[in-house]
């Protein structure tokens, strides 16, 4: 089942098209790593697809009424700062708002989703902490937990691993992969090609306004693509632990 489709999708920022005539469909169970050098349009694609930015062409998400969109897609933006001095539990509870009628209090199913999201991000001991008093990486984990608690068929995340320590990066990628394996669609922009190769079921590479490559990691991360798009050479191997991609140098 397709959770998300873009057709003839173009986005202008300033006088130029950043994305031109993109066609992309993401199905249930896919964990898509959205790759591309700085400025390739990864954030633009996700924000415009969600209807947060004007675009031409069609996005099945932005076509939905706002309330329905929030039940279909959770969004984790690149900026990870939490603005209000409220508890971690209250921040994560905000993820349940799309499922509540106006003025309705969270019920048993909401509490269960909140508890599960806190546990997935290793935040049970942080419940009552004031979110603004946490470290940058801890705040990032709280916002990821909020997106998980939203419990939507689609999860879109802009550089979710940025700022996390190695154990929490791996834990996060395990979590996102598990969400996809359970039938959700996950789209995450990533700069870490190693994490992308290891965890994503599919990589979509944006470059020069279009899709330069789209497929399983081992088919996408070729020496030619790495040199042409990323200007790097890398060690890429299939191992018992999955594909490994370690950048080695600039070409
Ligand atoms: N307000 C703006 N006006 C004009 N151009 C913009 C504006 N915002 C972004 N851009 C340009 O749009 C292009 C795509 O930006 P975008 O943030 O989507 O890239 P990205 O792939 O997410 O980059 P990064 O990896 O650096 O986060 C960039 O060239 C950027 O300079």
TrEMBL record:
The keyword Ubl conjugation does not apply. GO terms for molecular function: ATP binding; ATP hydrolysis activity. Residues 4-233 form the ABC transporter domain. It comes from the Bacteria. SUPFAM superfamilies: P-loop containing nucleoside triphosphate hydrolases. InterPro entries: AAA+_ATPase, ABC_transporter-like_ATP-bd, ABC_transporter-like_CS, P-loop_NTPase. The gene is fecE_1. It comes from Roseinatronobacter ekhonensis. Gene3D superfamilies: P-loop containing nucleotide triphosphate hydrolases. PANTHER family: HEMIN IMPORT ATP-BINDING PROTEIN HMUV. SMART domains: AAA. Keywords: ATP-binding, Nucleotide-binding, Translocase, Transport. Part of the ABC transporter complex HmuTUV involved in hemin import. Responsible for energy coupling to the transport system. Pfam families: ABC_tran. The keyword Transferase does not apply. This is Fe(3+) dicitrate transport ATP-binding protein FecE.
């Amino acid at each position: 089942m397709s959770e998300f489709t873009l057709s003839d999708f173009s986005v202008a920022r300033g006088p130029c098209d950043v994305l031109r005539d993109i066609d992309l469909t993401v199905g249930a169970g896919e964990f898509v790593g959205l790759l591309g050098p700085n400025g390739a349009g990864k954030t633009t694609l996700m924000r415009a697809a969600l209807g947060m930015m004007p675009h031409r062409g069609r996005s099945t998400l932005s076509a939905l009424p706002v309330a329905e969109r929030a039940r279909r897609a959770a969004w984790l933006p690149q900026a990870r700062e939490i603005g209000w001095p409220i508890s971690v539990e209250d921040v994560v509870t905000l993820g349940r708002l799309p499922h509540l009628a106006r003025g309705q209090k969270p019920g048993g199913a909401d509490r269960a989703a909140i508890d599960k999201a806190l546990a997935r991000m290793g935040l049970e001991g942080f419940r009552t902490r004031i979110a603004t008093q946490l470290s940058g990486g801890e705040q990032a984990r709280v916002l990821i937990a909020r997106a998980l608690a939203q419990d939507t068929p689609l999860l879109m995340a802009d550089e979710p691993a940025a700022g996390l320590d190695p154990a929490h990066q791996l834990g996060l990628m395990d979590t996102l992969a598990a969400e996809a394996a359970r039938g959700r669609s996950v789209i995450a922009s990533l700069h870490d090609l190693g994490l992308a190769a290891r965890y994503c079921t599919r990589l979509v590479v944006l470059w020069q306004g279009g899709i330069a490559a789209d497929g399983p990691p081992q088919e996408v991360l070729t020496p030619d693509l790495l040199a042409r798009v990323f200007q790097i050479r890398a060690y890429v191997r299939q191992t018992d632990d999955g594909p490994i991609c370690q950048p080695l140098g600039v070409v």
